[in-house]
Amino acid sequence: MRKLLAEAKIASAEEAAKKLIADAIKEADSKKRETILEAKEDIHRLRTELDNEIKERRQEQQRIDKRLNQKEETLDRKLETVEKKEETLRLKETELEQMEQKIQELHQRQLQELERLSGLSQEEARELLLQNVKKETRHEAAQLIKEIENQTKLEAEKRAREIISQSIQRYAADHVAETTVSVVSLPNDEMKGRIIGREGRNIRALETLTGIDLIIDDTPEAVIVSGFDPVRREVARIALEKLIADGRIHPGRIEEMVSRAQKEVEAQIKEEGEQATFDSGIHGLHPELIKLLGRLNFRTSYGQNVLKHSLEVCHLAGMMAAEIGADVRLAKRAGLLHDIGKAIDHEVEGPHVAIGADVAKKYRESPAVIHAIAAHHGDLEPETVEAVLVQAADAISAARPGARRETLENYIKRLEKLEEIADSFQGVEKSYAIQAGREIRIIVKPDRVDDVIASEMARDIVKRIEGEMEYPGQIKVTVIREVRAVEYAR
After folding, report:
1. Sheet order of strands, 213-215 included
2. Over the chain (490 residues), what is each successive 10-residue block's mean pLDDT?
3. Residue 430 gets which letter from DSSP?
4. Residue 438's CB: how many other CB atoms inside 10 A?
5. Does the CA dihedral 278-282-287-290 come out positive or negative?
6. Which of 41, 305, 314, 397 fits as disulfide partner to 335, beta carbons 3.0 to 4.6 Å?
7. In angstroms, rounded to a whole number, what is the distance separating the alpha carbons of residues 219 and 217?
8. Is 227 helix (H, G, I), strand (E, B) or coil?
9. How far is CA 196 from CA 19, 239, 376, in A?
10. Contacts of 260 (CB under 8 A, 6+ apart)
């Protein structure tokens, strides 16, 4: 019985297995057909896309070919037009050559006729004409120069004032903007309101006590202190910084702080003046002169500190005096005091040279020192060696590259430009820019430039310099014409 059951189970299992195998085969065949169909569809789609892409590329290639053909046609037309123009130009050139030949023939016949009528050759007539023109021109030029010199002498003072005024107008803006203001930093913008005070009473009190303008604008956390008196400006700056640090700002406190600041600045002025006399080795100066020297520490000229400039002139003049055997102490003393007038030239009317000479005279300096101060800018003719040395030392200190607000590159460019302008004139053999660009000396060829032309050349060079260059002060133009006759006795 068990055997029969087992056989029945085996038969049933085999039947089920066969059925599973048959179902699997059917399913595999079905999936195979589906896969083949999908592959055929993909192939058809890709082939369609490829055909479309090929078609688009062919159309694009046709468009490109069409544009190229159009451009070739356009170029051919332009080339044909150019060839026609060239042919026309060749014809015109031929006509011009024929006309020029005819003109030359006519000119030659006219010259021959003129020579026949005048009895002179072309070269003889040219030489005669040049001689007559030269004589007339030289005479007229000499008369004109004489008239100009007389007129210049009559208007010298007026012209000098105009030159000074123009110089001030040209350079004051940059100079004033950089040397007449100080900036005081604030901890916050709230402090501006406290500095101004109720109805502006604080700022009015500060400006009245110091004589300096306070500029409070939109500049963040800063107040500008503006004024032409450097000492007062320093007092105002110190007082304002003290008030800001203290925090209590009212008219009574302002008066107290301004008084303290004045004492501090006066002490600093005295200290700077005494230090300058110590550094220079100059003794026996009047106490007021020492104070004036200290005030120069707050004065600048084109960015150069005037006290340091005075010390430099003092040492330079002393060294040069020692080299040539002049009075070293006198040269150093005059060099230290030569710009003393700049300490008060904003308070006293007149040039700093005259003011300085008057101050030195007032405080009993020696006549030699007074003369050196008065002559250091050439207002007077130097009468002593020491005066000449102070003048030279002042020029060296002020004009050396880097001393004043001018870069070395600009300094060199100015010298090169000066020499370039001079060398551009005919007959110039060599030119030299000297005195740091304040003078240019031009050596001319004497066989090509006579005295009249030399005068005209100097004026023309001056006009070119004035028109093409920017420079401080004035530039002296000297044209040198030298003729040497050398013989040997044997």
Report:
1. 181-185, 222-226, 213-215
2. 78 83 86 87 89 91 91 90 91 91 86 73 74 76 75 64 40 38 74 79 82 76 77 83 81 84 86 87 87 84 79 87 85 90 77 87 89 84 87 76 56 84 90 82 88 87 87 80 78
3. E
4. 17
5. negative
6. 314
7. 6
8. coil
9. 109, 15, 46
10. 239, 242
Q: Are 428 and 422 in contact (CB under 8 A)?
A: yes
43 vs 116: CA distance, rounded Å: 107
Phi-psi region of 197 (alpha: psi -120 to 50; beta: other; left: phi over 0): left
**What integer pLDDT is reported at residue 171 of this predicted model?**
30
- Tokens 């060099």 sit at which residue? 335
Helices within 305-407 (DSSP H only): 306-324, 328-337, 352-362, 367-375, 385-399
pLDDT at 453: 86
Q: Which residue, 390, 377, 391, is CA-closest to 345?
A: 377
Closest by alpha carbon to 343, among 192, 461, 482, 229? 229
**DSSP states along 59-86:** HHHHHHHHHHHHHHHHHHHHHHHHHHHH
Residue linked to tokens 């604008």: 217
**Quick one: which of 336, 314, 318, 339 has its CA closest to 327?**
318
Chain-centre distance for alpha carbon 478: 27
Place of tokens 């007092």: 235
Within 8 A by CB and 6+ apart from 334, the residues are 317, 368, 369, 372, 373, 376, 386, 387, 390
Residue pair 250/197 in contact by the 8 Å Cβ criterion? yes
d(CA 200, CA 236): 17
d(CA 248, CA 246): 6
Q: Which residue has the tokens 């026309």?
A: 88
Tell me how far apart the alpha carbons of residues 431 and 461 are, in angstroms, rounded to a whole number. Answer: 12
Query: Element (H or E) spanning 485, and its range?
Result: none
Beta bridge partners of 478: 441
Say if CB 328 and CB 321 are below 8 A apart.
yes
DSSP string, 203-248: HHHHHHHH--EEE--SSTTEEEEE-S-HHHHHHHHHHHHHHHHH--
**Following DSSP, what letter does each residue of 23-56 receive, concatenated?**
HHHHHHHHHHHHHHHHHHHHHHHHHHHHHHHHHH
**Residues in CB range of 380: below 8 A, 6 or more apart:** 371, 374
pLDDT (0 to 100) of residue 176: 37
Helix (H) or strand (E) holding 303: none
Strand partners, 443: 430, 480
Residue type, 94: T
- CA 23 and chain centroid, separation: 100
Tokens of 264: 């501090």
Structure tokens at 429: 């053999």
Q: CB of 298 within 8 A of CB of 231?
A: yes
What pLDDT sits at residue 196? 79
Q: Do the Cβ atoms of 331 and 386 come closer than 8 Å?
A: yes
